[in-house]
Amino acid sequence: MNNFLSIIAYLSILILLGVVIKSKVKVLQDLFIPASIIGGIIGLILGPDLLGKYYSVIPQEWNSIVRGVPGVLIVPILISVPLGMEFGKKTKMMKNTVTTGGILFLVTFVQLFIGYFINLVFDLVFGIKLYKTFGAELNSAFAGGHGTAGVVARTLKEVGAEYWQLAQGVTVTLATIGLVSGIIFGIYQIKMNSDKILKPEILSEYKNGYIKEVENQPSIGKETMLNTTVDTLAYHIAIIFGVSGVAIISLDVFKYYRIPILSKITVWSYGMLLMFAIWKIFIKKGIAWSVDSKVKSKITGTLTEFAIVSAVTTIPIKAVASYILPILIISIVGFYITWVLIYSLSKRYFKDYKLERTLAMFGTSTGVFITGLLLLRICDPKLETPVLQDYSLGFSITALLGPILIATCIQLSFMHNYFYPIGLLLGLIILTGVSLEYYNKRVG
Fold it and tell me: Pick from 40, 33, 53: which is nearest to 14 by CA?
Protein backbone atom coordinates (compact mmCIF):
# COMPACT_ATOMS: atom_id res chain seq x y z
CA MET A 1 0.00 0.00 0.00
CA ASN A 2 2.87 2.36 0.80
CA ASN A 3 4.37 1.53 -2.60
CA PHE A 4 1.08 2.48 -4.27
CA LEU A 5 1.01 5.85 -2.51
CA SER A 6 4.68 6.45 -3.30
CA ILE A 7 4.19 5.73 -7.00
CA ILE A 8 1.14 8.02 -7.23
CA ALA A 9 3.20 10.73 -5.49
CA TYR A 10 6.10 10.15 -7.89
CA LEU A 11 3.86 10.43 -10.98
CA SER A 12 2.19 13.51 -9.50
CA ILE A 13 5.55 15.20 -8.99
CA LEU A 14 6.48 14.43 -12.60
CA ILE A 15 3.25 16.04 -13.84
CA LEU A 16 3.84 19.13 -11.66
CA LEU A 17 7.40 19.39 -12.96
CA GLY A 18 5.97 19.21 -16.47
CA VAL A 19 3.59 22.10 -15.69
CA VAL A 20 6.42 24.26 -14.30
CA ILE A 21 8.84 23.48 -17.14
CA LYS A 22 6.22 24.14 -19.83
CA SER A 23 5.41 27.53 -18.27
CA LYS A 24 9.10 28.51 -18.55
CA VAL A 25 10.30 26.94 -21.81
CA LYS A 26 9.05 28.75 -24.92
CA VAL A 27 9.77 25.95 -27.43
CA LEU A 28 7.56 23.57 -25.45
CA GLN A 29 4.82 26.19 -25.42
CA ASP A 30 5.10 26.79 -29.17
CA LEU A 31 4.81 23.03 -29.81
CA PHE A 32 1.85 22.74 -27.38
CA ILE A 33 3.49 19.78 -25.62
CA PRO A 34 1.29 18.61 -22.69
CA ALA A 35 2.76 18.70 -19.18
CA SER A 36 2.21 14.95 -18.75
CA ILE A 37 4.52 14.22 -21.72
CA ILE A 38 7.18 16.60 -20.36
CA GLY A 39 6.91 14.95 -16.95
CA GLY A 40 7.09 11.53 -18.58
CA ILE A 41 10.31 12.49 -20.36
CA ILE A 42 11.80 13.56 -17.01
CA GLY A 43 10.79 10.17 -15.59
CA LEU A 44 12.35 8.48 -18.61
CA ILE A 45 15.64 10.30 -17.97
CA LEU A 46 15.56 9.25 -14.31
CA GLY A 47 14.70 5.66 -15.28
CA PRO A 48 16.91 2.57 -15.58
CA ASP A 49 17.76 3.06 -19.29
CA LEU A 50 19.43 6.46 -18.83
CA LEU A 51 20.44 8.05 -15.50
CA GLY A 52 19.53 4.86 -13.66
CA LYS A 53 22.44 3.10 -15.36
CA TYR A 54 24.88 5.15 -13.32
CA TYR A 55 22.91 6.14 -10.25
CA SER A 56 19.71 4.54 -9.01
CA VAL A 57 17.23 7.38 -8.49
CA ILE A 58 13.98 5.43 -8.73
CA PRO A 59 13.57 1.95 -7.16
CA GLN A 60 13.52 -0.76 -9.83
CA GLU A 61 10.23 -2.21 -8.56
CA TRP A 62 8.57 1.18 -9.08
CA ASN A 63 9.42 1.13 -12.77
CA SER A 64 7.89 -2.35 -13.11
CA ILE A 65 4.63 -1.18 -11.53
CA VAL A 66 4.50 2.14 -13.43
CA ARG A 67 4.90 0.21 -16.70
CA GLY A 68 1.55 -1.47 -16.11
CA VAL A 69 -0.35 1.69 -15.09
CA PRO A 70 -1.56 2.68 -18.62
CA GLY A 71 -3.05 -0.78 -19.17
CA VAL A 72 -4.91 -0.54 -15.86
CA LEU A 73 -6.19 3.03 -16.21
CA ILE A 74 -7.37 2.58 -19.79
CA VAL A 75 -10.12 0.27 -18.49
CA PRO A 76 -12.14 2.91 -16.55
CA ILE A 77 -11.24 5.56 -19.16
CA LEU A 78 -12.88 3.61 -22.00
CA ILE A 79 -15.68 2.06 -19.95
CA SER A 80 -16.83 5.56 -18.93
CA VAL A 81 -17.40 6.68 -22.55
CA PRO A 82 -21.15 5.85 -22.75
CA LEU A 83 -21.87 7.48 -19.37
CA GLY A 84 -23.62 10.81 -19.87
CA MET A 85 -24.12 10.40 -23.63
CA GLU A 86 -27.22 12.06 -25.07
CA PHE A 87 -29.47 9.86 -27.18
CA GLY A 88 -32.27 10.65 -29.57
CA LYS A 89 -31.31 14.20 -30.51
CA LYS A 90 -32.35 15.24 -34.02
CA THR A 91 -29.01 16.98 -34.49
CA LYS A 92 -27.37 13.59 -34.64
CA MET A 93 -29.05 12.98 -37.98
CA MET A 94 -27.78 16.20 -39.54
CA LYS A 95 -25.87 15.68 -42.76
CA ASN A 96 -22.66 17.31 -41.58
CA THR A 97 -22.60 15.32 -38.34
CA VAL A 98 -23.09 12.00 -40.10
CA THR A 99 -20.49 12.92 -42.72
CA THR A 100 -17.98 13.96 -40.04
CA GLY A 101 -18.47 10.65 -38.25
CA GLY A 102 -18.14 8.75 -41.52
CA ILE A 103 -14.87 10.49 -42.43
CA LEU A 104 -13.42 9.86 -38.98
CA PHE A 105 -14.37 6.19 -39.26
CA LEU A 106 -12.78 5.97 -42.69
CA VAL A 107 -9.58 7.55 -41.35
CA THR A 108 -9.56 5.01 -38.50
CA PHE A 109 -9.81 2.10 -40.93
CA VAL A 110 -7.23 3.58 -43.32
CA GLN A 111 -4.67 4.26 -40.58
CA LEU A 112 -4.98 0.70 -39.29
CA PHE A 113 -4.70 -0.61 -42.85
CA ILE A 114 -1.56 1.46 -43.51
CA GLY A 115 0.08 0.12 -40.35
CA TYR A 116 -0.54 -3.53 -41.17
CA PHE A 117 0.29 -3.04 -44.86
CA ILE A 118 3.71 -1.62 -43.94
CA ASN A 119 4.22 -4.67 -41.71
CA LEU A 120 3.46 -6.82 -44.75
CA VAL A 121 5.89 -4.83 -46.96
CA PHE A 122 8.74 -5.14 -44.46
CA ASP A 123 8.12 -8.89 -44.25
CA LEU A 124 7.49 -9.89 -47.87
CA VAL A 125 9.51 -7.26 -49.76
CA PHE A 126 12.49 -6.57 -47.48
CA GLY A 127 12.50 -9.83 -45.52
CA ILE A 128 12.46 -7.94 -42.20
CA LYS A 129 10.22 -9.57 -39.59
CA LEU A 130 8.47 -7.10 -37.31
CA TYR A 131 6.44 -8.36 -34.37
CA LYS A 132 3.14 -9.89 -35.45
CA THR A 133 0.82 -7.09 -34.36
CA PHE A 134 2.95 -4.16 -35.56
CA GLY A 135 0.71 -1.72 -37.40
CA ALA A 136 -2.18 -1.19 -34.99
CA GLU A 137 -0.04 1.40 -33.18
CA LEU A 138 -0.49 4.01 -35.93
CA ASN A 139 -4.19 4.57 -35.34
CA SER A 140 -3.86 4.00 -31.57
CA ALA A 141 -1.21 6.74 -31.46
CA PHE A 142 -2.40 9.21 -34.09
CA ALA A 143 -6.14 9.11 -33.41
CA GLY A 144 -6.02 7.88 -29.82
CA GLY A 145 -3.07 9.76 -28.39
CA HIS A 146 -0.59 8.80 -25.69
CA GLY A 147 -3.28 7.53 -23.32
CA THR A 148 -4.41 4.88 -25.81
CA ALA A 149 -1.03 3.17 -25.52
CA GLY A 150 -2.75 1.34 -22.68
CA VAL A 151 -5.21 -0.21 -25.15
CA VAL A 152 -2.36 -1.75 -27.11
CA ALA A 153 -0.49 -2.88 -23.99
CA ARG A 154 -3.47 -4.41 -22.22
CA THR A 155 -4.79 -6.19 -25.31
CA LEU A 156 -1.37 -7.76 -25.93
CA LYS A 157 -1.04 -8.75 -22.29
CA GLU A 158 -4.46 -10.41 -22.40
CA VAL A 159 -3.49 -12.51 -25.44
CA GLY A 160 -0.14 -13.41 -23.86
CA ALA A 161 2.23 -11.38 -26.04
CA GLU A 162 5.61 -10.87 -24.38
CA TYR A 163 6.42 -7.74 -26.39
CA TRP A 164 3.55 -5.64 -24.97
CA GLN A 165 5.95 -3.13 -23.41
CA LEU A 166 7.71 -2.59 -26.76
CA ALA A 167 4.36 -2.05 -28.51
CA GLN A 168 3.36 0.43 -25.80
CA GLY A 169 6.64 2.30 -26.34
CA VAL A 170 6.16 2.37 -30.11
CA THR A 171 2.63 3.75 -29.62
CA VAL A 172 3.87 6.52 -27.31
CA THR A 173 6.63 7.44 -29.78
CA LEU A 174 4.19 7.59 -32.69
CA ALA A 175 1.73 9.61 -30.58
CA THR A 176 4.39 12.22 -29.87
CA ILE A 177 5.30 12.46 -33.57
CA GLY A 178 1.64 12.77 -34.56
CA LEU A 179 0.79 15.36 -31.90
CA VAL A 180 3.69 17.71 -32.62
CA SER A 181 3.63 17.42 -36.42
CA GLY A 182 -0.18 17.65 -36.51
CA ILE A 183 -0.23 20.94 -34.59
CA ILE A 184 2.64 22.49 -36.58
CA PHE A 185 1.19 21.45 -39.95
CA GLY A 186 -2.33 22.48 -38.91
CA ILE A 187 -1.22 25.98 -37.90
CA TYR A 188 0.76 26.26 -41.14
CA GLN A 189 -2.38 25.40 -43.13
CA ILE A 190 -4.35 28.04 -41.23
CA LYS A 191 -1.76 30.71 -41.99
CA MET A 192 -1.70 29.69 -45.67
CA ASN A 193 -5.46 29.45 -46.17
CA SER A 194 -7.08 31.87 -43.76
CA ASP A 195 -6.69 35.36 -42.35
CA LYS A 196 -8.29 34.21 -39.10
CA ILE A 197 -6.04 33.80 -36.11
CA LEU A 198 -6.69 33.22 -32.44
CA LYS A 199 -6.49 36.29 -30.23
CA PRO A 200 -3.00 36.67 -28.70
CA GLU A 201 -4.28 36.34 -25.12
CA ILE A 202 -6.19 33.12 -25.90
CA LEU A 203 -3.27 31.71 -27.90
CA SER A 204 -1.02 32.51 -24.93
CA GLU A 205 -3.32 30.49 -22.65
CA TYR A 206 -3.09 27.49 -24.97
CA LYS A 207 0.68 27.76 -25.11
CA ASN A 208 1.21 28.27 -21.38
CA GLY A 209 -1.35 25.67 -20.47
CA TYR A 210 -3.22 27.66 -17.83
CA ILE A 211 -5.93 30.33 -17.52
CA LYS A 212 -4.62 33.17 -15.39
CA GLU A 213 -7.66 35.44 -15.40
CA VAL A 214 -10.07 34.16 -12.73
CA GLU A 215 -13.17 35.44 -14.54
CA ASN A 216 -12.22 33.37 -17.62
CA GLN A 217 -11.73 30.12 -15.72
CA PRO A 218 -14.57 27.72 -16.65
CA SER A 219 -16.35 25.44 -14.20
CA ILE A 220 -15.33 21.78 -14.19
CA GLY A 221 -18.95 20.65 -13.81
CA LYS A 222 -22.18 20.76 -11.84
CA GLU A 223 -22.74 19.65 -8.25
CA THR A 224 -25.46 17.06 -8.83
CA MET A 225 -25.29 15.60 -5.31
CA LEU A 226 -25.30 17.15 -1.83
CA ASN A 227 -22.28 16.48 0.36
CA THR A 228 -24.63 15.33 3.12
CA THR A 229 -25.20 12.23 0.98
CA VAL A 230 -22.09 11.84 -1.15
CA ASP A 231 -19.57 14.12 -2.83
CA THR A 232 -20.42 14.64 -6.51
CA LEU A 233 -16.93 13.67 -7.66
CA ALA A 234 -16.96 10.54 -5.48
CA TYR A 235 -20.37 9.60 -6.90
CA HIS A 236 -19.14 9.76 -10.50
CA ILE A 237 -15.92 7.92 -9.65
CA ALA A 238 -17.95 5.22 -7.88
CA ILE A 239 -20.10 4.64 -10.98
CA ILE A 240 -17.09 4.43 -13.31
CA PHE A 241 -14.98 2.18 -11.09
CA GLY A 242 -18.00 0.19 -9.94
CA VAL A 243 -18.93 -0.76 -13.50
CA SER A 244 -15.25 -1.43 -14.25
CA GLY A 245 -15.11 -3.81 -11.30
CA VAL A 246 -18.28 -5.64 -12.34
CA ALA A 247 -16.89 -5.98 -15.89
CA ILE A 248 -13.60 -7.45 -14.63
CA ILE A 249 -15.28 -9.91 -12.26
CA SER A 250 -17.86 -10.95 -14.89
CA LEU A 251 -15.16 -11.51 -17.48
CA ASP A 252 -13.19 -13.66 -15.03
CA VAL A 253 -16.31 -15.81 -14.59
CA PHE A 254 -16.80 -16.04 -18.37
CA LYS A 255 -13.19 -17.16 -18.79
CA TYR A 256 -13.39 -19.65 -15.94
CA TYR A 257 -16.41 -21.36 -17.48
CA ARG A 258 -15.06 -20.83 -21.04
CA ILE A 259 -18.27 -19.23 -22.28
CA PRO A 260 -18.04 -18.84 -26.10
CA ILE A 261 -17.45 -15.31 -27.45
CA LEU A 262 -17.85 -13.64 -24.05
CA SER A 263 -14.70 -15.28 -22.68
CA LYS A 264 -12.69 -13.82 -25.59
CA ILE A 265 -13.96 -10.24 -25.46
CA THR A 266 -11.71 -7.50 -24.03
CA VAL A 267 -12.61 -6.14 -20.61
CA TRP A 268 -13.28 -2.59 -21.87
CA SER A 269 -15.43 -3.78 -24.77
CA TYR A 270 -17.63 -5.73 -22.37
CA GLY A 271 -17.48 -2.89 -19.84
CA MET A 272 -18.61 -0.33 -22.41
CA LEU A 273 -21.61 -2.49 -23.30
CA LEU A 274 -22.36 -2.82 -19.60
CA MET A 275 -22.11 0.94 -19.10
CA PHE A 276 -24.43 1.48 -22.07
CA ALA A 277 -27.04 -0.73 -20.42
CA ILE A 278 -26.63 0.98 -17.04
CA TRP A 279 -26.82 4.46 -18.57
CA LYS A 280 -30.01 3.44 -20.39
CA ILE A 281 -31.45 2.40 -17.01
CA PHE A 282 -30.47 5.79 -15.56
CA ILE A 283 -32.37 7.50 -18.39
CA LYS A 284 -35.38 5.20 -18.12
CA LYS A 285 -35.63 5.64 -14.35
CA GLY A 286 -35.32 9.40 -14.64
CA ILE A 287 -32.06 9.74 -12.70
CA ALA A 288 -29.83 10.82 -15.59
CA TRP A 289 -29.78 14.25 -13.96
CA SER A 290 -27.40 12.85 -11.31
CA VAL A 291 -24.61 12.46 -13.88
CA ASP A 292 -22.81 15.48 -15.30
CA SER A 293 -20.79 14.78 -18.45
CA LYS A 294 -18.27 17.53 -17.64
CA VAL A 295 -17.51 15.98 -14.24
CA LYS A 296 -17.13 12.58 -15.89
CA SER A 297 -14.79 14.05 -18.51
CA LYS A 298 -12.62 15.61 -15.81
CA ILE A 299 -12.30 12.25 -14.05
CA THR A 300 -11.28 10.44 -17.24
CA GLY A 301 -9.04 13.37 -18.14
CA THR A 302 -7.26 12.99 -14.81
CA LEU A 303 -6.81 9.25 -15.32
CA THR A 304 -5.52 9.91 -18.85
CA GLU A 305 -2.84 12.32 -17.57
CA PHE A 306 -1.51 9.65 -15.21
CA ALA A 307 -1.71 7.04 -17.97
CA ILE A 308 0.32 9.27 -20.30
CA VAL A 309 3.06 10.16 -17.81
CA SER A 310 3.37 6.45 -16.92
CA ALA A 311 3.58 5.34 -20.55
CA VAL A 312 6.22 7.92 -21.48
CA THR A 313 8.26 7.26 -18.33
CA THR A 314 8.61 3.56 -19.13
CA ILE A 315 9.39 3.68 -22.88
CA PRO A 316 11.90 0.87 -23.55
CA ILE A 317 14.42 3.09 -25.35
CA LYS A 318 16.67 0.38 -26.78
CA ALA A 319 13.81 -1.74 -28.08
CA VAL A 320 11.98 1.21 -29.62
CA ALA A 321 15.23 2.50 -31.18
CA SER A 322 15.58 -0.81 -33.01
CA TYR A 323 12.23 -0.05 -34.69
CA ILE A 324 13.11 3.51 -35.66
CA LEU A 325 12.97 2.85 -39.44
CA PRO A 326 9.45 1.34 -39.52
CA ILE A 327 8.33 4.01 -37.03
CA LEU A 328 9.52 6.81 -39.32
CA ILE A 329 8.04 5.20 -42.43
CA ILE A 330 4.67 4.51 -40.82
CA SER A 331 4.61 8.08 -39.44
CA ILE A 332 5.36 9.76 -42.77
CA VAL A 333 3.00 7.59 -44.83
CA GLY A 334 0.25 7.73 -42.21
CA PHE A 335 0.52 11.50 -41.77
CA TYR A 336 0.46 12.23 -45.50
CA ILE A 337 -2.46 9.93 -46.33
CA THR A 338 -4.45 11.14 -43.30
CA TRP A 339 -4.16 14.77 -44.48
CA VAL A 340 -4.93 13.99 -48.13
CA LEU A 341 -7.93 11.84 -47.18
CA ILE A 342 -9.50 14.35 -44.79
CA TYR A 343 -8.77 17.34 -47.03
CA SER A 344 -10.19 15.64 -50.15
CA LEU A 345 -13.33 14.32 -48.46
CA SER A 346 -14.04 17.63 -46.70
CA LYS A 347 -13.71 19.45 -50.01
CA ARG A 348 -16.04 16.92 -51.66
CA TYR A 349 -18.80 16.61 -49.06
CA PHE A 350 -18.97 19.85 -47.04
CA LYS A 351 -20.55 23.02 -48.41
CA ASP A 352 -19.56 25.35 -45.57
CA TYR A 353 -16.65 25.89 -43.17
CA LYS A 354 -14.46 23.45 -45.09
CA LEU A 355 -11.18 24.61 -43.52
CA GLU A 356 -12.58 24.48 -39.99
CA ARG A 357 -14.00 20.99 -40.46
CA THR A 358 -10.83 19.72 -42.13
CA LEU A 359 -8.52 20.95 -39.38
CA ALA A 360 -10.76 19.79 -36.52
CA MET A 361 -10.80 16.24 -37.93
CA PHE A 362 -7.13 16.35 -38.87
CA GLY A 363 -6.10 17.50 -35.39
CA THR A 364 -8.05 14.66 -33.82
CA SER A 365 -6.69 12.13 -36.31
CA THR A 366 -3.06 13.00 -35.55
CA GLY A 367 -3.32 13.89 -31.87
CA VAL A 368 -6.32 13.90 -29.55
CA PHE A 369 -9.73 15.59 -29.41
CA ILE A 370 -8.25 18.68 -27.76
CA THR A 371 -5.76 19.03 -30.65
CA GLY A 372 -8.63 19.24 -33.10
CA LEU A 373 -10.36 21.71 -30.79
CA LEU A 374 -7.21 23.85 -30.65
CA LEU A 375 -6.98 24.08 -34.45
CA LEU A 376 -10.71 24.75 -34.66
CA ARG A 377 -10.47 27.60 -32.15
CA ILE A 378 -7.71 29.24 -34.17
CA CYS A 379 -10.07 29.27 -37.18
CA ASP A 380 -13.19 29.95 -35.12
CA PRO A 381 -12.09 31.81 -31.93
CA LYS A 382 -15.59 32.20 -30.46
CA LEU A 383 -16.80 28.79 -31.69
CA GLU A 384 -19.67 30.52 -33.47
CA THR A 385 -19.88 28.00 -36.32
CA PRO A 386 -21.76 24.67 -36.04
CA VAL A 387 -18.49 22.79 -36.61
CA LEU A 388 -17.83 22.01 -32.92
CA GLN A 389 -21.23 20.35 -32.54
CA ASP A 390 -20.84 18.22 -35.68
CA TYR A 391 -17.24 17.40 -34.83
CA SER A 392 -18.01 16.45 -31.20
CA LEU A 393 -20.90 14.14 -32.09
CA GLY A 394 -19.00 12.49 -34.94
CA PHE A 395 -15.96 11.99 -32.70
CA SER A 396 -17.98 10.45 -29.84
CA ILE A 397 -19.04 7.54 -32.06
CA THR A 398 -15.51 6.77 -33.25
CA ALA A 399 -14.20 7.14 -29.70
CA LEU A 400 -16.68 4.47 -28.65
CA LEU A 401 -16.00 1.93 -31.40
CA GLY A 402 -12.38 2.73 -32.29
CA PRO A 403 -10.73 0.95 -29.32
CA ILE A 404 -12.86 -2.14 -29.96
CA LEU A 405 -11.69 -2.27 -33.58
CA ILE A 406 -8.05 -1.79 -32.53
CA ALA A 407 -8.32 -4.64 -30.02
CA THR A 408 -9.97 -6.86 -32.65
CA CYS A 409 -7.18 -6.21 -35.17
CA ILE A 410 -4.51 -6.90 -32.55
CA GLN A 411 -6.16 -10.18 -31.59
CA LEU A 412 -6.54 -11.26 -35.23
CA SER A 413 -2.94 -10.47 -36.12
CA PHE A 414 -1.58 -12.13 -32.99
CA MET A 415 -3.60 -15.33 -33.37
CA HIS A 416 -3.07 -15.51 -37.15
CA ASN A 417 -1.09 -12.87 -39.12
CA TYR A 418 -1.40 -9.41 -40.68
CA PHE A 419 -3.46 -10.73 -43.64
CA TYR A 420 -6.56 -11.10 -41.42
CA PRO A 421 -6.81 -7.47 -40.22
CA ILE A 422 -5.79 -6.25 -43.70
CA GLY A 423 -8.72 -8.15 -45.23
CA LEU A 424 -11.13 -6.93 -42.55
CA LEU A 425 -10.01 -3.31 -42.89
CA LEU A 426 -10.09 -3.36 -46.69
CA GLY A 427 -13.72 -4.45 -46.52
CA LEU A 428 -14.55 -1.74 -43.97
CA ILE A 429 -12.80 0.94 -46.05
CA ILE A 430 -14.79 0.01 -49.17
CA LEU A 431 -18.07 -0.22 -47.21
CA THR A 432 -17.54 3.13 -45.47
CA GLY A 433 -16.42 4.89 -48.65
CA VAL A 434 -19.43 3.64 -50.61
CA SER A 435 -21.79 4.51 -47.72
CA LEU A 436 -20.41 8.05 -47.45
CA GLU A 437 -20.84 8.63 -51.17
CA TYR A 438 -24.34 7.16 -51.20
CA TYR A 439 -25.46 9.10 -48.15
CA ASN A 440 -24.22 12.46 -49.41
CA LYS A 441 -25.78 11.94 -52.83
CA ARG A 442 -29.09 10.96 -51.25
CA VAL A 443 -29.38 13.88 -48.82
CA GLY A 444 -27.84 16.35 -51.27
Answer: 40
